[in-house]
Amino acid sequence: MTGTCWLYCRREEVAVLWVGAVATPGATGDVYACGPCVAELARMVRLQAHVRDGIAAPAAAPRRRHATTVVGACEHRRIEPREGKTHCGECGRQLYL
User: 77 near 65, Cβ under 8 Å?
Assistant: First the structure.
């Protein structure tokens, strides 16, 4: 479906997936996210699991130029094509849309 990404990029009119429900004091709602943000969320969960389980982080993890509230997370706000693939212009990671 096409809609607004509720996660990191907050882009509008993009392909999004339902990723779950959220409950706040006084309201509940559905959360939708685009492909790059789902990929970033999955990466963050894997990193958290590695820390929790005592597994060393990959040695070649790229450094991020712009940190957000989560250490090492990029919001992928500037997307650019490279060699027929989509990459984040901020962190350089390939994005799977």
Answer: no
